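Hey, can you fold this?
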Amino acid sequence: MAASNESKKDPESTRFLLAEDVRQETGGKFTISGLFTANAVLLTGANAKPGAARISLAALVTLFGGHGEFEVHTAVLSPAGKMLEQNTQTATLERRQALSLVFKWAPFAVAEFGDYKLRVRLDEKPFEFPFYIGTEASWRAST
């Protein structure tokens, strides 16, 4: 558990971006390559089959409006609810600042098409960020 901090405050809002790659540059800026609009990864060609797809996937999660040191637990859940990736780290959110967390999975093996979730928990406060992986036809059929 993260160190006790009486003045700790949970973040009030979040931002989630899904892309092929995210890098933090000098000075704190982020370079985002291959942004997936609508948080949908639409596969084509040889990659358009579950089990065959190996993609580069990255997420940028930004948290606003809180402060303190947090234990950050992350997990990627498949459409069937299976935990695919997980990680734990400690992060500090400074007052009047944003905390940006970058997660990268390369290669990310797509075993099934459907609605995935990135679950981020700061201490005991959960946040979920849904995203879709599949073909354009399967995505349109699911919406």
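Oh, and this one too while you're at it.
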Amino acid sequence: MGGLLGVGCAKSFTVKRYEVNIHILSDGDLEIAEELTVAFEGGPFEKGFREIDKRYTEAIIIEGVWEKIREGGWKRLNHTVDNSDKYVRVDWFYEQAQDEERVFKVVYKTPLITLISM
């Protein structure tokens, strides 16, 4: 038997801003930082995820996930990583969000030589 959803139970989110910064490290690897501004409507929400395509690289190493805090710094979040043949999925966990905006940053590395040789 299914439950009924009331009007107040609806929830959704929108990625309002997506910014990527790519740095070439001294060892030739790329460090990629993806910053996502997410607007939550309704809620609560407690988990985010990102699937990173492995089509153009043989390795993706998740460095971490952070949430921007009001004081202007970043708080490191707990996360899990699932590495399949086609993508790397990172799930992160944060304090409940409801009817607000939050900013998250996912940082990972990949070998530059793999991208060039394809």
